[in-house]
Every structure is written in C-alpha cells, then in structure tokens.
Design brief:
This protein is an alpha+beta fold. It folds into 3 domains: 54 residues, no CATH class; 92 residues, Phosphorylase Kinase, domain 1, CATH 3.30.200; 95 residues, Transferase(Phosphotransferase), domain 1 (Orthogonal Bundle), CATH 1.10.510. Helix content is 30%, strand content 22%. It contains 8 helices and 12 strands. The strands form 4 sheets. It has a 5-stranded antiparallel sheet with strand order 3-4-5-7-6, with helices on one face. The chain has a 3-stranded antiparallel sheet with strand order 8-10-11, with helices on one face. Strand 6 and strand 7 form a beta hairpin. Helix 6 packs antiparallel against helix 7 and helix 7 crosses helix 8. The chain is globular.
Length: 268
C-alpha cells in the first residue's frame, strides 16, 4: 500500500492510497474528539463517513457500489415500514409488490402458505436472501440492487428501487426492452462480474438483471447465490454471463457472445 507524506501547517500527515494501515487506524481511535473534528474538515473523505480516507479501514468507492440514488435515499432513508400495493411478480420464495404512496419503489415479502405457488422446499428462500445481503454487506459491492430492510404487517421485508427486468430464469423478455441495452452498459456489467468473481461470489441461480431509472444494470435477486474461496466462481459466472448474453439477444451462440463481449476471467 502506498503512503504519501504531505506537509501542512499542522505538521506532517499521512495520506494513504487505499485502506488505512492498522497503525493509522489506531492513531485515529486514540485521537481526541477535537482533533478528529479539525482533521475531518481538512482531509479528503471520499465515502462520506466520519473517518478521513487516510485513517479509514475501508474506503468505499461510491462510483462503483450500488447505493440508492441520492434523490431516492432522501425518500427511503428514514422509512421503517411500508404498505404493499399491487402484486407485480412472484417466485418460489418471495412476492414483489408496488408500495402504496411510494411510486418508483417495490417491496419484496416472503411467500406464504395461502399463495397457490407456495413451495415447502423454498419456504426459507426469502430469509436466506435477506441474510445473505446483510452478512456480506452487498450494498458495498457492485451490481447488487440497493436494498433496505423494512417492516410489512409486522414482518421483515425488503424495499428496493423499481426496475425494468431484462433477464430472468423462466421467461424470455421482449426484444423491444433488451435491445435498449448498450455495449457500454454490458462492459461495465462484465467488469463488475469480474470483481465479484475475484471475491468468490457464484451466481448459481443465473443472472437476474434489470435496469433502474439511471440506466444501471442491477442483479435484483440473490436466489441460490453462494460465496466460496475456490476458483469455481470464474467458471460458473462466465457460463452464466455468456448464457445471459444469448438470452437477451446480443448473440446467437455463447461462442459469438464471448468474441463480441468478452468473458469473465482473471485475464480479462
């Protein structure tokens, strides 16, 4: 990790390129509150938390993580509970509905036994996804749709921005929709998949992708995702990537998709 010494009126300060070393983190922890406030006003703080970059254990790259859009964050920031409206879609593990009085957002709730499509084998799927999101801090990672825990009828639910779906496992989406996706969007998505593969995330349930009002391509369903230390992530995710490209009509074969749009590999 690179360290850069910068002369200031207050002496020498250390600016780190990346996350801070343990010594710098400890220095911040031991610093008087008055000194922290003074430095916070003077030093760069890229991710907007309370710790300047030079002392931060984890500087989040806001340009790469999938946070709520600024305008949306102002709306959902303090929300604790919502009332579902019209049912939009459902799967074996969750129902997705509009939210009354909150256009532009949806809420996902667990499937219950009253639903005709209830599947006993997938009854824990919703809770698995919700916990997977929280356990791995997916809001700090690329591609995953921004999500917020809320309460619906006294039970946990997941609030998310509304998206236009372009790929899901059980149906082919109209080419009128998928044709809007540009090569630039796909290349950004590919680079994000490479980063996630390096971290060991496996998209076993396929790439379930949609785009939000800003044009971001987002993975909207964790499904049967896993995280592993093995190298299987690149092989699995590359296969899903090429299959995804054929499903949205960008290539007729996976071979053509690889040539035109690249692969998910360490050498990409």
């Amino acid at each position: 990790m690179a360290r850069k010494l910068t002369a200031t009126r207050d002496g020498i300060r250390v600016a780190l390129q990346g996350n801070a070393l343990i010594a710098d983190q400890k220095a911040w922890a031991m610093m008087p509150r008055s000194a922290k406030l003074r430095l916070s006003k003077r030093l760069r703080n890229a991710d907007g938390d309370k710790v300047p970059d030079g002392y931060d254990c984890r500087v989040l790259d806001r340009s790469r993580q999938e946070a709520f859009l600024a305008a949306d964050q102002k709306i959902v920031g303090k929300l604790k509970s919502v009332k579902p409206g019209k049912l939009i879609s459902h799967g074996g593990a969750g129902n997705v509905s509009t939210i009354e009085g909150l256009p532009g957002f949806v809420v996902k709730t667990p499937v219950n036994k009253k639903n005709s499509y209830y599947n006993e084998e997938r009854k824990d799927g919703f809770e698995y996804e919700r916990r997977f999101y929280k356990k791995h801090g997916l809001l700090g990672l690329p591609l995953f749709i921004p999500s917020k825990d809320v309460i619906v009828n006294g039970k946990p639910a997941i609030l998310r921005p509304a998206i236009t779906v372009i790929s899901e496992p059980n149906r082919i989406i109209s080419r009128k929709i998928t044709s809007k996706i540009t090569d630039k969007q796909l290349e950004i998505m590919r680079q994000k998949l490479i980063k996630l593969s390096m971290k060991g995330y496996l998209f076993y349930d396929g790439l379930q992708i949609g785009f939000d009002k800003s044009g971001r391509l987002l993975e909207y369903d964790c499904g049967e995702m896993e995280k592993t230390n093995s190298r299987d992530a690149f092989a699995v995710n590359n296969q899903e990537w090429l299959y995804f490209l054929t499903r949205i009509g960008k290539a007729k074969t996976e071979e053509e998709a690889a040539k035109r749009y690249g692969t998910i590999s360490r050498r990409s």
